[in-house]
Design brief:
The protein is mainly α. It is built from seven helices and three strands; from the N terminus they run E-E-E-H-H-H-H-H-H-H. A two-stranded antiparallel sheet has the order 2-3.
């Protein structure tokens, strides 16, 4: 199945082309599991036929020595590379693309172009069967350009210091969700997944509707991104991002426990990066509204 973040599809780890789905077939008697859902009760190891997978197919059982399979270290290193690319290009675009009134239109044009390229690259990766490091790092680079210009503009014209607050807020959300997930306070199952995806689809539909009204009617559209409603939807957006972080952590945990190929660490890094970018943008927007109301 496809799915990953509030905008794109999330793909879990399984034997069905390397990814899992909730509508997967049930294992036949005496045969291997086919596209097993890792969130289902009593799920078998979807990488049981993978030559690199552990021989013990029960999740949580002691794992034997494995070869070319994904580890937590792989996910951490790939995520660090992807996020590092985002930060590097964001800093460079902040420094090299001035947001003073004389150059603001040019800088915004470059930022919008970079965002569109990042969107295309992320869509291409979302529909590929296997992760592509070049596509993922390319997405990170262009996303960083967009974030750098937007952050510089917000810091210059709305409130100085709001970018640092948004970064710290994003880090706090990440740490909080990670602790809650590890402590078992958040249980990712089919019901949780269904609720999050339904809420995200509704949220995105409202945001697209608001954007269309803003484009054709002018102003802030339906007002979902300013004032009291803007604050409410900013909080909802951050909560949705936190929920998708929990899904990302579950995806990583399943991939490690099921013996996913090492290349899948890039897919985990891609999902985590997209979710963190989502949270940062929602945090930046929320803080900007709060600072503007002061």
């Amino acid at each position: 199945m496809r799915s990953s973040n509030p905008v794109f599809s999330r793909r879990g780890f399984s034997r069905d082309n390397g990814y899992a789905g909730f509508n997967a077939q049930q294992p036949q008697a005496g045969g291997p599991a086919v596209g097993t859902n890792p969130y289902a009760e009593g799920a078998t190891n979807p990488y049981a036929t993978n030559p690199y997978a552990p021989q013990d197919t029960q999740l949580g059982a002691p794992q034997q020595a494995r070869g070319n399979v994904m580890t937590i270290d792989d996910v951490v290193s790939r995520t660090a590379m992807t996020l590092g690319t985002v930060v590097l290009t964001a800093v460079l675009s902040w420094l090299l693309l001035p947001v003073d009134p004389a150059n603001l239109g040019k800088s915004y044009g470059i930022a919008i172009g970079a965002a569109l390229v990042a969107l295309v690259l992320s869509l291409v990766q979302s529909f590929k069967r296997k992760p592509s490091p070049a596509l993922i790092l390319g997405y990170a680079a262009f996303e960083g350009v967009f974030l750098g210009v937007i952050s510089a503009a917000v810091s210059t014209y709305i409130a100085d210091g709001v970018v640092i607050q948004a970064v710290l807020g994003t880090m706090a959300v990440f740490a909080g969700v990670l602790i809650a997930y590890k402590m078992g306070w958040i249980r990712v199952n089919r019901r949780f997944y269904g609720f999050v995806m339904a809420a995200a689809m509704g949220f995105m539909l409202l945001m697209v509707t608001n954007l269309l009204f803003a484009v054709f009617a002018g102003g802030d559209g339906l007002g979902f991104r300013s004032g009291g409603l803007g604050i409410l939807f900013g909080v909802i957006g951050i909560i949705l991002g936190a929920c998708f972080l929990a899904l990302d952590f579950k995806q990583v945990e399943d991939g490690v426990n099921y013996g996913a190929p090492r290349e899948e660490a890039w897919l985990a890094a891609f999902g985590l990066t997209m979710t963190l970018v989502w949270i940062y943008l929602e945090m930046l927007r929320l803080l900007s509204i709060l600072q503007g109301d002061d």
